[in-house]
Amino acid sequence: MLYQQINQNKRKTVLLVALFSVLVLVLGSAIGYLLNNDFVSGVIITIIVLAIYVPITLKTANAQVLKMSGSKEIQRKDHPQLFGVVEELSIAARIPMPKVYIVEDPAPNAFATGTKPEKGAVAFTTGLLDRLNREELSGVAAHEIAHIRNYDIRLMTICVALVGVIVLVANIGSRMMLFGGARRGGGNNKSNPILMILAIVLVILAPIAAQFVKLAVSRNREYLADASAVEFTRNPKGLINALNKISQDPNDVKEAKEATASMYISNPFKKKRKKKSSLWSTHPPMESRIEQLKNM
Questions:
Q1: 79 known member of a binding site
Q2: Would you say 135 is a known binding-site residue?
Q3: Cα–Cα distance between 208 and 203 in angstroms, integer?
Q4: What is the average per-residue pLDDT within 118-138?
């Protein structure tokens, strides 16, 4: 059951990322058709933007996330038990020991960052450390280390960059249409009116579709990290109890940002989460995660 769950989640993620890539290229084609009456030029522009934007985002993501969250790096003497747990699980996951950070915040939560295991870091709020026992803390730490081992941070960083490129390219296309750039640039009488309408609709809807795909990838990786955590600890009970405690706390994480919300083990915006539909959620329902863990 455990390995079936892991393989199923990996297949879903590949499918969603492929869908993301197709969306980016189709949007590029639509922009090219609107501006130059051909499908190739827009794709070339989109690929150039991707080639610049994605590497910069990957290069700076770790430092930005840690800075935005207010995390402070600690040493073994500051919290020996936490260091012992992280060290033990990083050995089980066969990755280098990640750096350990603490966030001064009463809301129980945690996140990991690191686009590759050699640059991994895990952060825990003081609220989490105060509430959880060692077994529960191991479950949470295993979940975060799984994100590093499974390269989820790199995947989500690329997704965020792709959404940024889609929004940027769609914004450029929209502005060109508003100021008549399409007509001057090549939207001449040879343009097919049906294709023009489809291209305009695509430019308007692509950013929304991209957000849906990014959130779907995020939710899927949470299930995979839960399954991987059980693989490391061989004990679903610790993570189940930890998720129950985390879900019962009503407080938001003060320094959390919308851009980094998907990286936490639980949505850091508890009050906003209640108002959103599941399609706009960064995380799967807690009840569903716990149910899947019970079946492992």
A1: no
A2: no
A3: 10
A4: 96
What pLDDT digit, counting tens, does each position of 167-203 carry?
A: 888 887 777 777 665 555 444 556 678 888 888 888 8
Residues 232, 92 contacting (CB under 8 angstroms): yes
Give residue for tokens 């990014």.
214
Q: Please indicate whether residue 258 is annotated as part of the active site.
A: no
Out of 118, 135, 136, 144, pick the active-site residue: 144
CA–CA separation, 130 and 262 (whole Å): 23
> What residues contact residue 236 under an 8 Å CB cut-off, 6+ apart?
139, 230, 293, 294, 296
pTM score, whole prediction: 0.82
Q: How confident is the model at residue 237 (pLDDT cuts 50, 70, 90)?
A: very high
The answer to whether 122 touches 112, Cβ cutoff 8 Å, is: yes
H/E/C letters for each residue in 62-118?
HHHHHHHHCCEECCHHHCHHHHHHHHHHHHHHCCCCCEEEEECCCCCCEEEECCCHH
CB atoms within 10 A of CB 264: 24
**Pairing, β 72-73 against β 121-125:** unpaired
Banded model confidence at residue 5, pLDDT cuts 50, 70, 90: low
Question: What are 127's two structure tokens?
Answer: 């609220």
d(CA 292, CA 278): 17
